[in-house]
Each structure stands twice: as structure tokens, then as C-alpha cells.
Specification:
9 helices, 62% helix, 5-stranded antiparallel sheet, Arc Repressor Mutant, subunit A, 2 domains, alpha+beta
């Protein structure tokens, strides 16, 4: 921990600096959510801010994959990553519990819960951590991961830090869900545009077949569909071949 970080966290010496860091962080995050962003950079900014302005020594974020397993996506140090990774392997510890219960989990003294989470406590102590606090990344009924805060000394987070941690977790959740929505919307838009483009080609193919065979466009479409089915081809591919004169019906 640097002297600057200690000043930012200290109630007497660094309250103004701490508030300035938080205001700047939230402003930066708000800009990124509006203008588009790198989600990993967003999450790294969040964990770095947590370790700087909260009464914690390390921070990390874990997100759930498609199978519901947690994966480390941002961390302030290798030691915190080791603890978080161990939680994933054992499916135990405050972070995993916070994810599965959708509630904050506070562990002010890891030794107290040695029987409940023996693997977590052992690795945490090996890395020099004595306390942990986990905050769920949730929006309404959806939990997508957790923010994990680790301390080198025994003790609870104060109420102010708990509120700030939850606010940062909420920003992360909104950002991640927005990124997923934008990505999914882009896929849907691409699929829609692809369907529209395909329909244009099919209309052109119907005109070609109708002209060559001297039939109506409805009859031409029936011929195109029958050829596609009989030859197990995509309708769009048959239409494209007809328009390019690579196929004649």
C-alpha cells in the first residue's frame, strides 16, 4: 500500500482526496457506459478503486459463465486471484456464498469460520489475508458475479465502505448487463439484416425463374423451394446461384 493510498483512506487526512477519487471514478464509469467501453477495463478500474479508497488491501471480481461457474475477470494482485481461484475449485468461501445467496457476506476474522470454509481459510492465511467481504453483482433477481474484498488485518468494513462497495458493484453489474445487451442486440440486428438481404436475393431469383420458365412468381418460388429441399440446400444459396446464372431451373 502506498503512502498516497493511505492518505486517501484516512478519515482525517484524506477524506477530500477519497471523495475526489470516487467522484472521478463514477464520472469515468458513467462516460464509459454511454460511449461504449471495454468491459475488462471497466472491471479493472473498479477493483483498483476499491483497493485504493476502501479499507481493504486487495479486491477482485468474479463473473458467472454460461454454466453458472465463477471465473476471475479482474484482480488487484496475484495473491487475491489465488484465493478467489481456490474458492472456485472448492465452491466454497464468502465469494461463492455471496453469489449463491445473492447477499453480502462479511468475514471479519477468517479463523472464526475455519470449520465452515477450511480450504478458503487455509489459502487466505497463507496469502496473509485475515478478513474478507463479498458483495453480489446483482440487478433485481439476476446475480452475475461477486466483488471480493480482502484485508490483511482482522475487522469489519465500516458502513460507509460497505455502501461504496455496493455502489461500485451495482455500476459493474449495469455495465456488464448493458454490454451483453448491446452485443446480443448487435447479433439480432445482424441476423435481421441477413434475413432482409436474403429476401432481396430470393425476390430476384423468383423473377429470373418466372421469366425463363414463363410462370408466375408464386410458381417460380415453389420451384426454387422444391429444388432446395430435394437437394438439401439452403434457399438463400439456391437463390444466389439462380441470380448469378450458375443454376437454371
Amino acid at each position: 500500500m502506498s503512502a498516497d493510498d493511505r492518505d486517501v483512506r484516512g478519515d482525517a487526512r484524506g477524506e477530500a482526496s477519497r471523495e475526489a477519487v470516487l467522484v472521478d471514478t463514477f464520472a469515468t464509469l458513467a462516460d464509459s457506459l454511454v460511449a461504449g467501453f471495454d468491459v475488462i477495463e471497466l472491471l479493472q478500474t473498479l477493483v483498483d478503486t476499491c483497493s485504493r479508497v476502501l479499507d481493504v488491501d486487495e479486491a477482485g471480481i468474479l463473473l458467472a459463465d454460461e454454466d453458472g461457474d465463477l471465473e476471475v475477470v479482474a484482480s488487484t494482485s496475484e495473491s487475491s486471484t489465488l484465493v478467489e481461484t481456490m474458492q472456485l475449485d472448492a465452491r466454497s468461501g464468502p465469494c461463492w456464498t455471496s453469489f449463491t445467496t445473492a447477499a453480502p457476506v462479511s468475514l471479519p476474522d477468517v479463523d472464526v469460520d475455519r470449520e465452515r470454509w477450511p480450504e478458503f481459510v487455509e489459502v487466505a492465511r497463507q496469502q496473509g489475508f485475515r478478513a474478507a467481504h463479498a458483495v453480489p453483482l446483482r440487478l433485481r433477481g439476476t446475480v452475475i458475479g461477486t466483488l471480493n474484498l480482502l484485508r490483511n488485518s482482522v475487522g469489519e468494513l465500516n458502513d460507509r465502505d460497505v455502501r461504496v462497495a455496493q455502489a461500485l458493484a451495482d455500476v459493474a453489474t449495469i455495465g456488464i448487463l448493458q454490454e451483453r445487451t448491446v452485443r446480443e442486440s448487435a447479433v439480432v440486428q445482424q441476423q435481421l439484416q441477413g434475413a432482409l438481404d436474403t429476401r432481396v436475393v430470393i425476390e430476384q431469383a423468383k423473377g429470373v425463374v418466372a421469366h425463363v420458365r414463363g410462370v408466375s412468381t408464386d410458381e417460380a418460388f415453389a420451384l426454387i423451394r422444391r429444388h432446395a429441399r430435394e437437394n438439401r440446400l439452403k434457399l438463400a444459396d439456391v437463390a444466389a446461384q439462380l441470380v448469378d446464372r450458375r443454376l437454371t431451373l
